[in-house]
Each structure stands twice: as structure tokens, then as C-alpha cells.
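Final report, section 2: Outcomes. Of the targets proposed, Hydroxymethylglutaryl-CoA lyase is the one most frequently requested by collaborating groups, and we therefore present its record in full.
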Amino acid sequence: MSDHAEIVEVGLRDGLQNERTPVDATTRARWFNALADAGLNRIEAGSFVSPKWVPQMASTDQVIAGIQRRPGLSVETLIPNQKGLDAALASRVDRIAVFTAASDAFTQKNINCSITESLERFAPLIEAANNAGLRVRGYISTIAACPYAGRIQPGAVADVTERLLGLGCDDISLGDTTGVARPREIDAILDAVLPLVPTERLALHCHDTYGQALANVLQGLERGIRTFDSAVAGLGGCPYARGASGNLATEDLLYLLEGQGLHTGVDLEAVCRIGNDICHRLDRRTPSKVAQAMQC
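The predicted structure is given below as C-alpha cells.
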């Protein structure tokens, strides 16, 4: 197994989109550049969604305009439709993401369509992105449970994974949106998914609602997963999953990975300082245990 682990930093998108306090584009770009300087190579800059529905993601194009590009840095955004893809192409992002779920009930609440309809919408977008030289990530939400439909069978996750890969996605992020999964459930999901896709094309996206995120990361590591999503200062949650708390904090993930002897190339203390700056701006206390302990 590789001794390198990669973190996809989602705090500026999946994190800030669920925070009540909007942050201007200049500040978001400054945070992006600081995270890149700390050694993170894959960072979501935001999403090209309607500011009417997600005002926190307004001016994502201006955020990207303020990014200091460097070799090896992947500037990533989430898109919902052709308008979003056009904006991503105009902003010269490196990777786009599309999002669906393993639950029809959740996709209806989240994007007002079924799983099949969401994939039909994404098919031409993924093809166009591939033709333009962009890499494409596919998000699958509610891999363990749906707040509307209850427990999700691993076979449903495998089915959506296979369909996204067939459409041309380069990598798949498996999201425990409600944060209810435990290692045994993660293991069962991976039993269903891993025969379909190599581990290097998979990521785990763990929320920490029940305090199980790090345990689930460890289970993923045992199965060969080496890419994990996290958010600086544990930002975010899910507006369509009542009670779901924030993402796994990047600070806590880094501490675990380093302790397991895995190399990330990321400066933990620098990420702690950035997280503290963000929390000060948002007038909130960081949920990161590591950041609290280190007091950077």
C-alpha cells in the first residue's frame, strides 16, 4: 500500500456553503492561497450554483481569479448544470464535481430529481468537461443512511458508483452525509464498491455527527483508500440532512494520517492557524480537537 495520503480540502465549498455568515470573495481567495501554501494540492474553491439558493457561494469566479496558481495545484469546483460548467470553463478550473446520492429521496430534496434523472443531466456535462480536458469527480451522498429513506443498502452505492464511472468520472467520493456510519458499515460499502473501481479512484467523505469520522477513515485505510475529503476547522454540514454536523476537520485528519506513518506534504500547524483565522471571522469555536489542543 502507498505511504502517501491525499486530502481533498472541501471547507471553502462544502463547509462555507452551510455557514450562516457570508464571506467575501477576496477573503475566500486568501484562505485558498493559505491552504495551498500549507501544502494542500486539491482544494475546492466553491461552487457555480445560483446565489439565490446558496448565497455563500456567490462570486466563486472572483475567488478563482484571486488564486495563485502553481504546478501540482488542482483548483476544483462543484457544478449543477450547463451554466455552471460554462462558468467553470471560463474560470479555467482543473476539475469539476457533480453530485448525486444513493437515495432517490435525498436527490429529490437536494436537486429536485431522481438518481436516474440526475445522471441523465450530468452525462452531457461530464462528456463536455472531458472533451475540454477537465477531470471530473462524482459525489455520492448518503452512502450509509438517508434522513428521509433510512438505511441505504451497499448495493445501491455500488450501482451509482458504476454508473458514474460509466459516464466518465475520474474519481468517486463516497459521502457519509449524515455521519451515522460506523466502520462495519463502511466495510460493507467498500465490499460492494471495490470490485468495480481501483482504490486510487475512490475517496471517503466522512461527517462527524456521531464522532465516528476518524474511525471510518481508519477503516478506509485498512481497505487501501488513500484519498479523504475534509474541511479546515470542521466547517459545514448538510442543509438537507437535519442534525448532520460538520465535515471531518482537516486538522484532525492530518494528525491521524501522520500518526499512521502516511505522508501528506501538508503543514499541520499552518492549517491550524488558517482554521483559527476562519473561525475568528465566522465568530465560532473550532470543533477540531487537534486545533484546540495545539492552540496554534
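The chain has a mean pLDDT of 94.
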